[in-house]
Design goal:
Blueprint: E1 2-3, H1 5-12, E2 23-24, H2 26-39, H3 42-52, H4 58-74, H5 79-92, H6 97-110, H7 113-126, H8 130-142, E3 149-160, E4 171-174, E5 177-180, E6 190-206, E7 209-221, E8 229-242, E9 245-258, E10 261-276, E11 281-294, E12 302-316, E13 319-332, E14 339-352, E15 355-368, E16 380-392, E17 400-413, E18 420-431
Antiparallel strand pairs: 1-2, 3-6, 3-18, 4-5, 6-7, 7-8, 8-9, 9-10, 10-11, 11-12, 12-13, 13-14, 14-15, 15-16, 16-17, 17-18
Helix pairs in contact: 1-3, 2-3, 3-4, 4-5, 5-6, 6-7, 6-8
Length: 433
């Protein structure tokens, strides 16, 4: 039996609801909620479903969450709130394929296409009966539905052992002797405020084709503004869906400020191709060409060329892995600043209760075309990095949940000033979806 004063309050507008002590069983509350939803009385329906969410019977509790999520998404268009309800079901019952399919549909309506595709792969990994396979095809097609605008925001406090990625040595070896490095040129620790955000707007041009405009901004701010690192960019271009493939093209500028000065202005474009390689995996290939106008050193004005490929695979409903490889070429005015690099990285994610863990490891190698006049050797580097992040979805305020991330870097360089170690962390909040 469930006490229903909140339901009575929703029905009578709050008149004397404190005196209502009606006892309704679960079946009666479901009937009341479903009838209220059918009549368009969504306040009463939400109150009734809300009362059932506290039922000690897990099956009844999750059924109420599911029906509430469907009402929030389909009737009220509150997609984020609906996704939260579905995630709570999956926290208790990760193998529920129908819930994952609905989550994929709702994430698509929110504009989170990668999240939607990941949810579909997780549903496949959980195992689907034959009669549900046609629902997968339906929801795959539903990914063409687009939210016209949206965005995300992440805010965190970021302690860092080496905010300027500099050497710990107090001298620098050159062809004309050792130079003494000032304190600002050496590794410096600090605590910054890390801000990341993006917003997008989407306009349908014709079936299967959208125009996408994206504005992104981010940076880390320190008490000493000389070490602030801020960037912002605008990307505009079409997206095409051909069968199950997604092709995206974009062009636009990017600005970066370091310290108190404009560091660089970039102009260029990117292209990407996304292709499912099976029910549980997906391939993504990206390429870009960018002109870098360095505002502080004209010899570093360059053209950058990037090509990368990544493969993601869902192992189970709560566990997945991915690998990425990339190649990079920078042709600068001075051959000493011209670089060739390549690398690979791997990640794994795991949902543990209501916490999502993501671990990454990576390696890259870099070589310069020539030796800069000042340094005794040509620049050659090996960089290693690793990180571990946790999103604590059990704690949330609206759509935001706490985020904890720890990162480690080691760059071994033939040029002393580029040789560094770094450990950093982030403690903040981010959108859970």
């Amino acid at each position: 039996m469930v006490s229903a004063p909140a339901v009575a309050h929703a029905q009578d507008g709050g008149q004397a609801s404190g005196q209502v002590q009606a006892q309704l069983n679960a079946a009666q509350l479901f009937a009341l909620a479903d009838d209220a939803r059918a009549r368009g009385d969504f306040a009463t329906a939400q109150a009734a479903y809300g009362a059932l969410r506290s039922d000690p019977d897990g099956e009844l509790r999750n059924e109420a969450r599911f029906r509430l999520a469907m009402m929030l998404a389909d009737d009220l268009h509150r997609y984020t709130d609906a996704a939260i309800e579905l995630r709570r079901i999956l926290d208790e019952k990760p193998g529920t394929a129908r819930v994952r399919l609905e989550l994929a549909r709702i994430l698509a309506l929110m504009g989170d296409m990668r999240g939607a595709e990941r949810a579909l792969r997780a549903a496949e990994a959980a195992g689907l009966p034959p009669d549900v396979q046609r629902m997968v095809r339906f929801y795959t097609n539903a990914l063409t539905a687009r939210k016209p605008f949206g965005g995300s925001l992440e805010v965190s406090i970021a302690p860092d052992s080496n905010i300027n990625r500099a050497t710990r040595s107090d001298t620098l070896g050159t062809v004309i002797g050792d130079f003494t490095l000032g304190r600002d040129a050496q590794a410096k620790s600090g605590i910054g405020l890390d801000l990341r955000g993006q917003a997008y707007w989407r306009e349908g041009l014709e079936p299967g084709t959208d125009l996408l405009v994206r504005l992104s901004a981010g940076g880390t701010l320190y008490r000493d503004a000389d070490f602030n690192d801020i960037s912002t960019g605008l990307q505009v271009g079409p997206q095409y869906r051909s069968g199950r493939d997604l092709i995206s093209l974009s062009v636009g500028p990017t600005w970066r400020w370091y310290g108190r000065r404009l560091f660089s202005v970039n102009y260029g474009g990117n292209a990407s191709w996304q292709h499912p390689t099976g029910k549980r995996s997906q391939l993504r290939v990206e390429g870009g060409i960018v002109h870098v106008d360095n505002q502080l050193n004209r010899l570093q004005i360059a053209d950058d060329f990037t090509l990368s490929a990544s493969l993601d695979r869902a192992i189970s409903a709560r566990f997945g892995i991915g690998v990425q490889s990339y190649g990079f070429r920078e042709t600068a005015r001075d051959p000493g600043y011209s670089l060739t690099s390549g690398g690979t990285s791997a990640y794994a994610y795991r949902e543990v209760g209501r916490t999502t863990l993501i671990g990454t490891v990576g390696y890259s190698h870099l070589e310069a075309d020539a030796r800069l006049f000042l340094y005794p050797r040509r620049r050659i580097e090996d960089r290693f990095n690793a990180s571990l992040a946790a999103t604590l979805r059990a704690i949330h305020v609206g759509t935001f949940s706490p985020l904890v991330r720890v990162k480690w870097e080691r760059n071994r360089s033939s040029i002393e000033i580029y040789d560094y170690k770094r450990i950093s962390a982030e403690f903040g909040v981010s959108s859970a979806f």
